[in-house]
Design a protein that fits this description.
The complex is a heterodimer. Chain A is built from 10 helices and 2 strands. By secondary structure, chain B is mostly helical. Chain B is globular and about 45 Å long. The chains are: A mainly alpha, B mainly alpha.
Chain lengths: 285, 185
């Protein structure tokens, strides 16, 4: 039955109450930090740079009081794929990938298989970059309610409203998507157990039997979509019944104010980001 | 089912369907249910673009583009390979999946709705595969010589799986909506 436990592993979109500093800062601050560090993440390929950013992310997790066990449990479903990709990158990209800041060195070669310090760096850095974004996204949704995230996104998109960006609608779509991920994870679990109890085999058809795999998928995906459309119709009806008309003229019960703490934290992250980006060619490895 | 409002207006229906199908796209990537093992270097065909195709077919190109955008964002955030750590490769091609599928479906459904669904699934899937691989080539993630085998072994299973799933989901849903026992297509 362990194969079917999805809900436990879907960590994005689950909120934990708390009173840590990460909980208390403005949602807009958290989203800004996520964006700043995501940009740094995209441009950093060295061990040093990624180690710095990763330790900052880990510090944030510690500051939030959310347990690492919870956040790391979200990696579990991805683990087999990560390992397969890592092995392929390690074994076959030995010659193709120049290591950053190191002299190219081949550790092992046998036919097409070549392990070099370049491919080793590729694997370790890719893993570090994955963890950075993973920690930050999990942290954002674990310490901020979906309503707060929605208000944050809407507030950040407000300036673009003049050029026709529907900020309220976009933030609502994002909220619905985030809110429904855990619901559908639970639904998928129920469907899988139901189909398995009728004798369905989700062992996977192997690499050459993709038609068989597709047929197995049909018994999961079709009920999942039908359930999704049912829930969507209910939600549309409920919203229309309450005369939902979009963001026009809408005001909020709670308003957010960016305080000194928010500006300090944003400023510190921006300074870190610029430092890492500017110095990225100066790191030893 | 067809919304009559202007194709760019975000009414309640379009907002909700985009959000809900976007959630499925994120979930498929997150739980790795959306990866189907195939025999090549990239090792995986995907079905995570299918919500974008279905959204585009059922609610128009704008909804398709939004779902594609959510899929792109999640694949960028959860990427485990350098290729998808590039936002241009991860997000841009995905925006177009639902758009091409929606336009194909709209153009063909007058003649034969079933055929329109099949062709929309093919066009939407190939939009994803060809644009992602093309950009991967342009940005030098994958050498051009390695393209044809990847294209063949990835695109073929993806197209077959997309056709099966898109047709199955859309007919199943239309059957429920019309309340009849048989699909009215």
């Amino acid at each position: 039955m362990e194969d079917f436990e999805f809900l436990r592993n879907v960590t994005i979109g689950q909120y934990f109450t708390g009173n840590s500093i990460v909980h208390r800062i403005d949602p807009r601050t958290k989203i800004t930090i996520l964006m700043i560090l995501a940009i740094v993440n995209s441009f950093t390929t060295s061990y040093t740079g990624n180690a710095i950013v990763l330790s900052v992310c880990i510090a944030y997790v510690i500051a939030s009081g959310i347990s690492f066990r919870f956040i790391l449990s979200g990696v579990k479903p991805a683990l087999p794929i990560i390992i397969i990709y890592a092995l392929m990158q390690l074994l076959f990209f030995g010659e193709a990938y120049e290591p950053y800041g190191l002299a190219s060195e081949v550790y092992f070669q046998w036919g097409v298989i070549a392990i070099s310090n370049g491919s080793l760096q590729l694997v370790i850095v890719t893993l570090m970059r994955f963890l950075q974004i993973f920690f930050l996204v999990s942290l954002l949704t674990a310490t901020t309610t979906t309503t707060d995230i929605a208000h944050g996104v809407e507030g950040m998109l407000k300036p673009f409203q003049r050029i026709g960006v529907p900020s309220h609608e976009i933030s609502l779509i994002g909220t619905i998507a985030l809110r429904f991920v855990p619901i559908f994870a639970e639904q998928l679990e129920i469907i899988m157990k139901a189909q398995a109890s009728r004798g369905a085999d989700f062992g996977g058809g192997g690499v050459f039997q993709f038609v068989k795999t597709a047929r197995q998928m049909v018994s999961l995906i079709v009920p999942l979509f039908v359930d999704a459309f049912r829930r969507a119709e209910d939600l549309i009806l409920a919203m229309d019944a309450r005369c939902y008309i979009g963001g026009k003229g809408r005001t909020h019960l709670t308003r957010f104010h960016l305080g000194n703490l928010d500006f300090t934290i944003m400023g510190a992250n921006l300074a870190l980001a610029i430092a890492v980006l500017v110095l990225r060619n100066a790191f030893p490895a | 089912m067809e919304t009559t409002a202007s194709p760019t207006a975000l009414n309640t229906r379009r907002i909700v369907i985009s959000g809900v199908l976007g959630a499925i796209a994120i979930l498929l990537g997150w739980t790795r249910i959306g990866y189907i093992p195939v025999p090549n270097l990239s090792a995986n065909a995907t079905i995570m673009h299918i919500p974008a195709i279905i959204g585009g077919v059922m609610e128009g190109w704008l909804v398709g583009a939004i779902i594609g955008g959510l899929f792109g964002l999640s694949s960028f955030a959860l990427a485990t390979v350098p290729l998808f750590k590039n936002p241009i490769v991860a997000i841009l091609p995905r925006l177009l999946i639902g758009v091409t599928a929606a336009l194909t479906y709209k153009a063909l459904k007058q003649n034969n709705e079933w055929l329109a669904l099949v062709v929309a699934a093919i066009v939407g899937t190939l939009t994803n595969t060809i644009l992602v691989l093309g950009l991967a080539g342009i940005f030098n993630y994958i050498p051009w010589v390695a393209m044809p085998p990847i294209l063949l072994t990835n695109a073929l299973p993806e197209v077959i799986i997309a056709i099966i799933l898109v047709v199955a989901v859309v007919t199943a849903w239309k059957r429920i909506e019309t309340g009849g026992g048989e699909a009215k297509m």
